[in-house]
Amino acid sequence: MMNKISHKGIVEDVGSGQVIVRILQTSACAACKVAGHCSAAESKEKRITVKTKNNEKHSIGDHVVVSMNAENGRKAVMMAFVYPFILMVAVLMIILWMTDNEGLAAMMGIAVLIPYYVIIYLLRDKIAHKFNFMIEESSKTIN
Q1: pTM strictly above 0.90
Q2: Measuring CA to CA, which residue among 72, 83, 139 is closest to residue 116?
Q3: Which residues are within 8 A (CB) of 78 and not within 5 positions of it... i.e. 6 or more apart?
Q4: Cβ distance 73 to 5 under 8 Å?
Q5: Distance from C-alpha of 84 to C-alpha of 73, rounded to nearest angstrom
Q6: Can you tell me the distance from the alpha carbon of 30 to that of 138, in angstroms, rounded to the nearest whole number?
Q7: Are strands 43-51 and 134-139 parallel, antiparallel or unpaired?
Q8: Is the dihedral of CA 95, 121, 129, 133 positive or negative?
């Protein structure tokens, strides 16, 4: 089993103690030969902020490999998708059991996600410290 999640990217900005890397996140089927004719294939451009040490030298346009510990990736998926799903289903079942009103149970099940994601948003800086990206390798661009 792999220990890291890696993406190739290009350095977009270099600041004091941080580098912003642009990566192209693709779905598993985006590399397929018929992906242009299929609605399932998608890709998104993402920007990742990587904390760096002062002795690391990166320049805008450098090609880099950005990685994260696979365990942190699993934690992020749990926090973003699994926990809210469990919370939604639990509220749905509790409200349905208490009121026997399916409409109310469905609305409350969805409504409980609002405070969950607001709390995640408010704690984003604290959470970001737990999910650190690293630059593994770098190659300078040739102009």
Answers
A1: no
A2: 83
A3: none
A4: yes
A5: 16
A6: 25
A7: unpaired
A8: positive
